[in-house]
Amino acid sequence: MTAVLQARHLGKRYRRRWALSECTFDVPAGRVVGLVGPNGAGKTTLLSLAGGLLTPTAGTIEVCGGRPGADRAQLARVGFVAQNTPTYARLTVADHLKLGARLSPRWDAGLARQRIQRLGLRSDQQAGSLSGGQRAQLALTVALAKRPELLILDEPVAALDPLARREFLEDLRDATAEQELSVVHSSHLVSDIERVCDHLIVLVASRVRLAGDVRELLATHRVVTAPRLDPAALPAGLHVVSADHTDRQTTMLVRSDSGVDDPAWMTSPVSLEDLALAYMSQSVPVPEALR
Questions:
Q1: Residues 50 and 102 placed together within one structural domain of the fold
Q2: Which branch of life, at top level (predicted)?
């Protein structure tokens, strides 16, 4: 399986603090990847490394088979929409498209025009006069019209109202299906990720805690309710992600490739949001060498 994004022991240090450490994962081509984690987990750092905006302190990262930001051709293979959905306030919509055409060797002018018309944006409108949702859509249009192989989204809808956020995500879903591109979408709203993504990466305390195909992750995790027990006494092959206890019973989220068979236990599927939050709530000690 071809990887559009590949990291091996990837790390980034700012002075004495490691924002990212020992990250190893593969992102298959053609997938829409949700990147989630608590604030400060390293999501923006990881995406900035993938976009060629930063260089690693340790390890390696490859995007579309090459080093991020290595040259103009490599930059053209990646579209990037940052958290503040950057646009130039004094430039018009038409100016943004002209700028995109000059900077992007594979610029699709027809796609850009069609999107602007469908969104109801006037070409003479200045970006500073647009709503937050409209600016986000303009930034997405510029990124998509590059015809990238990988589209990187760093929480572009974080500041939008629920309606504008839903419209953006629906538009993103349709665009990725039409263009068959790969997407890495960072968000602190797991419900947004659940709506559009088929692959998941969970970052906690600068490290990858979980990564994989969404269907496989949901199939190998179960919520187990049982008479009160010590999770340490569970059979081999069951990994406890989280556990809550009352006087009479224990409720656990467990991971198992072979299933859960004990007839005394009640099992139920887990939602993607609950799965991600369970891993995000785990504390991850940082090794002394990385402090």
A1: yes
A2: Bacteria
Q: Are strands 17-28 and 3-14 parallel, antiparallel or unpaired?
A: antiparallel
- Are residues 251 and 180 both part of a single domain? no
Query: Pairing state of beta strands 239-245 and 207-213?
Result: unpaired
User: CA-to-CA distance for 68 and 71, rounded, in angstroms?
Assistant: 8
Among 167-171, 219-223, 230-234, name the most confident range: 219-223
The whole-number average pLDDT for the span 152-164 is 83
Q: Where does the pLDDT of residue 279 fall: very low under 50, low under 70, confident under 90, or very high at 90 and above? A: very high
CA distance 157 to 84: 8
Residue 155 belongs to a domain with what CATH number? Answer: 3.40.50.300
pTM over 0.85: yes
| Same-domain check for residues 125 and 245 | no
The model's pLDDT over 23-56, given as tens digits with 9 standing for 90+, comes to 999 999 999 999 999 888 999 999 999 999 999 9
d(CA 9, CA 121) in angstroms, rounded, equals 44
Cβ atoms of 221 and 259 closer than 8 Å: no
- Whether residues 81 and 137 share a domain: the answer is yes
Task: Give the per-residue pLDDT at 256.
Answer: 84
Same-domain status, 85 and 173: yes
List residues bridging with 27 in a β-sheet.
5
Contact 157, 192 (CB under 8 A): yes
The answer on pLDDT for 288 being more than 60 is: no
- Kindly report the number of other CB atoms within 10 A of residue 110's CB atom: 9
What's the token pair of residue 32?
């829409």
Give the residue carrying structure tokens 């038409």: 94
Contacts of 269 by beta carbon, 8 Å cutoff, 6+ apart: 218, 222, 223
- The domain of 206 spans 3-215
